[in-house]
Write a structure and sequence with these properties.
By secondary structure, the protein is mostly helical. The protein has six helices and no strands. The protein has one domain. The chain is globular and about 50 Å long.
Amino acid sequence: MDPADTDRVANMDSIFHLTEFWGKRLNVNSEIRSIIQEVQTSLEMRGTPLTDASVRKELQILATNAKKSIGKRGLSMRSEALYRYVENSTALRSEIVATA
């Protein structure tokens, strides 16, 4: 993104509070917390150690299952994207592993 565009977006955000609005509207943080708990519970119930590799694999499985549900279940595209987001976030994966 062009640095000038970054400034424009920041200015628009400060005027219209878009980040705050969409953050509340989409409730993404709450859904990410739910995904973290879902992965922890799933691996613990199967007796799988909470490692970065096992967490990443579980998130890949969940994302693939969500993708297969597109057109069959509501918000499947969004769910897939959130699983992929957590999968690609070292900090969030580390948070899951840290509960071990």
